[in-house]
């Protein structure tokens, strides 16, 4: 197999998040308006998506009366957080460091409350094969798969390994990096001769590939929010994309058709909601998550992956689910922040 090409350049960035302060905002001691710092940007391939999500969340929180500022993950961040001492931090970072638990580890070391899952559970979810194993242990379904590092292809020879994959899993297949999001490096493989190129594209985004049996059916995303009575699922969003739900299909208007709520029977809707809540609990997630799955022809909900930092752009799936539920998006974001604040006060 040829050596992988260099990773494609990240999507064009919008630069420093609008509203990122050069210095911490001055806060009077009597000012009891909670300060929320929204972290957006970072240096991953998903930087642009993160910036768009961060801006929308910050604007929504301001509309509820909170003080919300955006800040990038840069050399000024730690000093800013130490000086500003925000009441809550909301990491809206995608990709490495944003979802692998490392930024959350830093926030824990600083003693700052934050929205979202803790670092240990984030690491489990960030690594797709590990999270799939945890889901299987919880009695949930996920497509059959193998996980192979790039070094194995060099050691054993690419073609024999590829032939073994096809014999073991059959066709079609989906090849994706074990870590990452926004469908970057993901390829659907219908014919065996397409597999080498798919591996090359995958290895451009990471050293290890997850190769799983492709599942056909209704593609759905089910968001879960922690409420007063525990985690609750929002209405499922159905995704209809020609050629696969890739990066362009996710973030370019008009590329994909969404149905929110999804076109499901009441029984199917209850089933996928239950699966998403069970995944949220099994993976020890907190505040909010999104489970991507396919309801196959047999009626089984096959989990593709779970996200600890769902996108919040104008095309993202969680905001669409909130709209389908009839709830106000800004009010729900405020509830999420209030939940994080309450948990911090309880210790």
Automatic annotation (TrEMBL):
<dbReference type="InterPro" id="IPR016185">
    <property type="entry name" value="PreATP-grasp_dom_sf"/>
</dbReference>
<keyword id="KW-0436">Ligase</keyword>
<dbReference type="InterPro" id="IPR013815">
    <property type="entry name" value="ATP_grasp_subdomain_1"/>
</dbReference>
<keyword id="KW-0961">Cell wall biogenesis/degradation</keyword>
<comment type="function">
    <text>Cell wall formation.</text>
</comment>
<keyword id="KW-0133">Cell shape</keyword>
<dbReference type="InterPro" id="IPR011095">
    <property type="entry name" value="Dala_Dala_lig_C"/>
</dbReference>
<keyword id="KW-0547">Nucleotide-binding</keyword>
<dbReference type="Pfam" id="PF07478">
    <property type="entry name" value="Dala_Dala_lig_C"/>
</dbReference>
<protein>
    <recommendedName>
        <fullName>D-alanine--D-alanine ligase</fullName>
        <ecNumber>6.3.2.4</ecNumber>
    </recommendedName>
</protein>
<dbReference type="InterPro" id="IPR005905">
    <property type="entry name" value="D_ala_D_ala"/>
</dbReference>
<dbReference type="InterPro" id="IPR011761">
    <property type="entry name" value="ATP-grasp"/>
</dbReference>
<comment type="pathway">
    <text>Cell wall biogenesis; peptidoglycan biosynthesis.</text>
</comment>
<comment type="similarity">
    <text>Belongs to the D-alanine--D-alanine ligase family.</text>
</comment>
<feature type="compositionally biased region" description="Low complexity">
    <location>
        <begin position="12"/>
        <end position="27"/>
    </location>
</feature>
<feature type="compositionally biased region" description="Pro residues">
    <location>
        <begin position="1"/>
        <end position="11"/>
    </location>
</feature>
<keyword id="KW-0573">Peptidoglycan synthesis</keyword>
<dbReference type="GO" id="GO:0008716">
    <property type="term" value="F:D-alanine-D-alanine ligase activity"/>
</dbReference>
<feature type="region of interest" description="Disordered">
    <location>
        <begin position="1"/>
        <end position="28"/>
    </location>
</feature>
<keyword id="KW-0067">ATP-binding</keyword>
<keyword id="KW-0963">Cytoplasm</keyword>
<feature type="domain" description="ATP-grasp">
    <location>
        <begin position="132"/>
        <end position="338"/>
    </location>
</feature>
């Amino acid at each position: 197999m040829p050596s992988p090409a260099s990773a494609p350049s990240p999507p064009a960035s919008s630069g420093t998040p609008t509203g990122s302060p050069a210095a911490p905002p001055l806060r009077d001691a009597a000012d009891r308006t909670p300060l929320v710092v929204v972290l957006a940007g970072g240096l991953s391939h998903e930087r642009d998506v993160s910036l768009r999500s961060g801006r929308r969340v910050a604007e929504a929180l301001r509309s509820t009366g909170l003080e919300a500022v955006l800040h990038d993950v840069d050399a000024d961040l730690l000093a800013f957080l130490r000086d500003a001492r925000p009441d809550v931090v909301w990491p809206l970072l995608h990709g490495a460091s944003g979802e692998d638990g490392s930024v959350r580890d830093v926030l824990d070391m600083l003693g700052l409350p934050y929205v979202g899952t803790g670092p240990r559970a984030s690491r489990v979810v960030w690594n797709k094969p590990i999270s799939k194993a945890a889901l299987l242990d919880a009695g949930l379904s996920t497509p059959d798969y193998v996980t192979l590092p790039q070094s194995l292809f060099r050691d054993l020879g690419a073609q024999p390994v590829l032939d073994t994959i096809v014999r073991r899993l059959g066709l079609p297949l989906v090849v994706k990096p074990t870590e990452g999001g926004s469908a970057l490096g993901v390829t659907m493989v219908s014919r065996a001769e397409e597999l080498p190129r798919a591996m090359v594209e995958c290895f451009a985004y990471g050293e290890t590939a997850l190769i799983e049996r492709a599942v056909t059916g209704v593609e759905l995303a089910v968001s879960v929010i922690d409420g007063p009575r525990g985690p609750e699922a929002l209405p499922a969003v159905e995704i209809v994309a020609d050629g696969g739900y890739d990066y362009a299909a996710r973030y370019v208007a008009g590329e994909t058709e969404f149905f929110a709520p999804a076109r499901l029977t009441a029984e199917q809707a209850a089933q996928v909601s239950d699966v998403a809540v069970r995944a949220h609990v099994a993976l020890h997630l907190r505040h909010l998550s999104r489970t991507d799955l396919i309801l196959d022809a047999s009626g089984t909900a096959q989990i593709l992956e779970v996200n600890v930092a769902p996108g919040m752009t104008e095309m993202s799936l969680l905001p669409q689910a909130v709209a389908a539920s009839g709830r106000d998006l800004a009010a729900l974001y405020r509830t999420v922040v209030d939940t994080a604040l309450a948990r911090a006060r309880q210790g």
